[in-house]
Amino acid sequence: MGMILLPVFALLLLICFCNSKDRLTPAKPLSIGDRLISNGSIFALGFFSLKNSTANSYVGIWYHNIPERTYVWVANHDSPITGSSSGKFVLTSSSDLVLLDSKGSTLWTTTNNITTEATGAAAMLLDSGNLVIRLPNGTDIWQSFHHPVDTILPNMSLQLSNNNNLSMHLVAWRAPDDPSTSDYSLGGDSSLQILVWNRTRPYWRRAALDGVLVSAMYQRESGPIMSQTIVNRGGEFYLTYTVSNGSPGMRMVLHYMGMVKFLAWNNNSLAWEVFFERPGPSCDRYASCGLFGYCDTTHAVATCKCLNGYESIGLDFSLGCQRKKQLHCGQGYSFVTLLNMRTPDKFMVSSLLPVLLSLL
Ligand SMILES: *[C@@H]1O[C@H](CO)[C@@H](O)[C@H](O)[C@H]1NC(C)=O
Ligand SMILES: *[C@@H]1O[C@H](CO)[C@@H](O)[C@H](O)[C@H]1NC(C)=O
Ligand SMILES: *[C@@H]1O[C@H](CO)[C@@H](O)[C@H](O)[C@H]1NC(C)=O
Ligand SMILES: *[C@@H]1O[C@H](CO)[C@@H](O)[C@H](O)[C@H]1NC(C)=O
Ligand SMILES: *[C@@H]1O[C@H](CO)[C@@H](O)[C@H](O)[C@H]1NC(C)=O
Ligand SMILES: *[C@@H]1O[C@H](CO)[C@@H](O)[C@H](O)[C@H]1NC(C)=O
Ligand SMILES: *[C@@H]1O[C@H](CO)[C@@H](O)[C@H](O)[C@H]1NC(C)=O
Ligand SMILES: *[C@@H]1O[C@H](CO)[C@@H](O)[C@H](O)[C@H]1NC(C)=O
């Protein structure tokens, strides 16, 4: 009897300890093997390796309530703890989080925004997946949501512009087992469009923002609803999305191959379901139909087409299209309206736009 009860008792004890562990204080650093668990047991933070015990290790956040290990944030993604070295994740007396290797060198650190000495701060892992450094009066002086890597979680905002000064970017992992910065990044451009870049070259472009847009909805039979919004807070534009309460995990990720994906955890099949993925398999990539060509997505398989009066130069559209006949102005030529086209790239935002929008 006792032999059977003992393991169960030990397990309960373990769960109880875990559930109280959602924060770090200067007196309580995190070592390899330790974990922070958010209050509602939704997210965990700790050290991890992606390959084997001799591979690099990182400090990151993953879902605690999802069996497939899925990382949503990595602190030291570009500065791993190498080889068999160990590490410590510490909240300093000046209220910054610091990752130290076994030699005491700093691999990664936050720079909080307080100027006055504050005592009693704690680093807390919240049920939203946000790691915050919180003062006793409730002010957060740093948060991981302001320093994303490749993932946007519900309620997180990606700042697309700061009065036309570009700010936050997502950066894709280099490979499934390598979270270091790859060639792909996502962010807003000076025209307030969302772009994925392959280094400095645009790879995918999303239609321009109008500041009031709700752009996507998703609903499974079981009910979770996602709505994605571009919000304008005093001239600063943010991309954000919310999910209905009680929804299982949902995340937007810039995949290591450069795709933007929205995924939802299916608690029946125990797998991530992709319900939005761009660029699509064919001509959805930036400028993939060349000059005077466009991607026709009205059919099951999207294909490149030329504008009326144009023909393709090459077979594969990489050279775009050319006029069938030389243009002779004034001989019955006129402008035509092309419906349902994406706003062209490199347009300029007129200062009249807010006035026009307010008239709608
Ligand atoms: C943790 O969750 C419990 C119940 O879910 C709640 O009563 C408590 O206030 C929470 N603690 C914190 C620090 O949020
Ligand atoms: C473990 O990782 C190291 C470095 O990445 C690699 O050289 C080694 O072959 C791996 N060992 C196994 C058993 O996978
Ligand atoms: C998002 O924020 C709303 C309002 O603050 C809150 O009710 C909701 O629980 C949050 N959702 C998540 C997933 O954190
Ligand atoms: C909390 O404390 C910090 C540091 O003492 C201070 O800068 C901040 O204004 C306080 N916030 C509130 C809401 O009282
Ligand atoms: C520090 O940043 C937080 C948001 O993370 C903000 O609420 C707070 O006002 C900032 N404090 C200062 C002193 O800038
Ligand atoms: C734009 O950002 C850069 C770098 O972060 C900063 O140095 C510059 O002052 C900012 N400009 C404006 C107008 O905010
Ligand atoms: C990304 O750009 C590199 C050159 O910088 C190119 O070799 C590669 O094919 C591009 N990737 C894709 C998917 O287009
Ligand atoms: C999935 O279902 C299990 C068992 O009902 C539950 O404990 C867990 O929190 C659920 N996960 C999510 C992500 O909703």
TrEMBL record:
Keywords for this protein: Disulfide bond, Receptor, Signal
Keyword Transport: no
Catalyzed reactions: L-seryl-[protein] + ATP = O-phospho-L-seryl-[protein] + ADP + H(+); L-threonyl-[protein] + ATP = O-phospho-L-threonyl-[protein] + ADP + H(+)
Membrane topology: Single-pass type I membrane protein
Cross-referenced CDD domains: B_lectin
Matching SUPFAM superfamilies: alpha-D-mannose-specific plant lectins
E.C. code: 2.7.11.1
Gene3D superfamilies: Bulb-type lectin domain
Positions of the Bulb-type lectin domain: 21-146
Gene Ontology cellular-component terms listed: membrane
Molecular functions per Gene Ontology: protein serine/threonine kinase activity
Leader peptide range in chain numbering: 1-20
Localization, UniProt: Membrane
The protein, known as: non-specific serine/threonine protein kinase
Origin species: Triticum aestivum
